[in-house]
């Protein structure tokens, strides 16, 4: 099909003579878009030679980098790892150093989040590939600076998402799997100046869509939500912190962007969980202080909160029947837990729920598997009433 004009809905019969990627319907539309297009068009020629892989599975793709202290976005080469499991390819983006706020800061995969889109809602167009905007998970609360490169390309900045810290836009093939929790991209896409327009449109479209009352309440720095910190083994042994610790977090904390854990959702106590920034990397540096039997970053309570409870799910990298995703089984570190509805959550609530998952539900899952019975025999035991019964017995100990 013919490419459409980047500035309107007419056929793009005029191609940019510089990058040879962007299309316009006329010289007039080309002049109209030049202010933004030139940001990447003029350097596109310098990003034609892909970096060579240094190890098996490594691949570099061209991405677009928005640095908070730079006035303009720019191309970068982003490192990813390719692999294959059960006949399916998967892609794992890396280049964590791009997201560091300081030269010596060590970033890890679980310090980051992504927002994906595959449609330009501003121009009512489906896109040829999927885009991801990757950013620091805690950028609203970790001291990250406002992203100047983004603010210089979006309109009405007072009403848009408050992007802070480094942001990387990258492309992949469309996520073809229909299972929401099993949707890893299979291959990467090199972005071009023509993709820049879709990214800018998304940044302009990505606005707060709640009520103004909720917006004011969310942004009120005086308001705090009561949550719980589950400390890892090293926090407890070395720093003498309790396993379950009361904390207060802002209403805009990134934890509230997470989906509730499967068991908590089923029992109508929807909790959301995020890792504590730099907990894992901190204990990597301090591992000589720890003398425990398990790894210093172990946090079994957090792991068991993430067990799956849908008999149809059976994929080792995501929620599975009676198992937590792989990302929650290793190097968890300390985590923050809160209620999705932002109601107060007490340490005893989380302690009882973790105990129920780890010692009661896991036993039920094991019995069902050993007897080779349908998973549906366990589901009636994962209810609000059953948890309340366990909670009463747990408090009476």
Descriptive tags:
alpha+beta; zinc ion binding; Znf_MYND; 10 helices; 13 strands; four-stranded antiparallel β-sheet; seven-stranded antiparallel β-sheet; zinc-finger; MYND-type domain-containing protein; 21% strand; zinc; 397 residues; 2 domains
Description of the structure:
By secondary structure, this protein is an alpha+beta fold. The protein has two domains: 44-205, no CATH class; 221-395, no CATH class. It contains ten helices and 13 strands. It has helices spanning 27-41, 148-151, 193-205, 212-219, 233-237, 262-266, 279-285, 300-305, 347-370, 384-395; strands at 14-15, 23-24, 58-66, 74-85, 88-93, 112-120, 125-136, 167-172, 188-189, 225-230, 244-249, 271-275, 335-339. A hairpin with a 7-residue loop joins strand 3 and strand 4. Helix 1 (27-41) crosses helix 3 (193-205) and helix 9 packs across helix 10. The N and C termini lie far apart (69 Å). Residues 177-182 have low confidence and may be disordered.
Topology summary:
Elements: E1 14-15, E2 23-24, H1 27-41, E3 58-66, E4 74-85, E5 88-93, E6 112-120, E7 125-136, H2 148-151, E8 167-172, E9 188-189, H3 193-205, H4 212-219, E10 225-230, H5 233-237, E11 244-249, H6 262-266, E12 271-275, H7 279-285, H8 300-305, E13 335-339, H9 347-370, H10 384-395
């Amino acid at each position: 099909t013919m490419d459409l004009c980047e500035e309107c809905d007419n056929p793009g019969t005029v191609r940019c003579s510089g990058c040879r990627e962007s299309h316009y319907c006329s010289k007039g539309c080309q002049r109209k878009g030049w202010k933004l297009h030139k940001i990447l068009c003029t350097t596109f020629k310098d990003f034609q030679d892909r970096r060579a892989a240094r190890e098996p599975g490594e691949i570099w793709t061209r991405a677009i980098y928005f640095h908070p202290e730079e006035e303009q976005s720019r191309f970068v080469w982003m490192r990813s790892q390719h692999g294959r499991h059960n006949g399916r390819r998967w892609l794992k983006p890396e280049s964590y150093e791009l997201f560091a706020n300081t030269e010596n800061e060590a970033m890890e995969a679980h310090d980051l989040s992504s927002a994906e889109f595959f449609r330009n809602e501003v121009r009512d167009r489906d896109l040829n590939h999927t885009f991801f905007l990757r950013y620091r998970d805690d950028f609203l609360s970790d001291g990250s600076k406002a992203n100047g490169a983004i603010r210089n390309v979006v309109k009405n900045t007072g009403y848009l998402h408050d992007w802070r810290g480094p942001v990387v836009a990258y492309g992949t093939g469309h996520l073809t799997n229909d299972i929401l929790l099993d949707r890893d991209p299979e291959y990467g896409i090199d972005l071009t100046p023509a993709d820049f327009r879709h990214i800018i449109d998304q940044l302009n479209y990505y606005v707060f869509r709640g009520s103004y009352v909720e917006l004011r309440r969310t942004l009120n720095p005086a308001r705090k939500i009561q949550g719980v910190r589950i400390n890892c083994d090293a926090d407890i042994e070395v720093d003498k912190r309790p396993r379950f610790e009361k904390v207060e977090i802002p209403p805009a904390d990134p934890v509230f962007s997470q989906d509730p854990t499967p068991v908590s959702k089923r029992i109508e106590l929807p909790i959301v969980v995020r890792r504590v920034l730099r907990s894992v990397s901190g204990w990597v540096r301090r591992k000589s202080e720890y003398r425990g039997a398990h790894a210093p970053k172990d946090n079994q309570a957090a792991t068991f909160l993430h067990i799956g409870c849908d008999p149809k799910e059976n994929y080792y990298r995501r929620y599975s029947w009676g198992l937590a995703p792989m990302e929650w089984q290793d190097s968890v570190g300390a985590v923050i837990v809160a209620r999705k509805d932002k109601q107060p959550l007490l340490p005893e609530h989380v302690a009882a729920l973790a105990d129920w998952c780890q010692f009661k539900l896991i036993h039920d899952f094991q019995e069902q598997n050993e007897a080779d019975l349908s998973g549906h025999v366990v589901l009636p035991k994962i209810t609000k009433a059953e948890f309340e019964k366990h909670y009463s017995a747990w408090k009476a100990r």
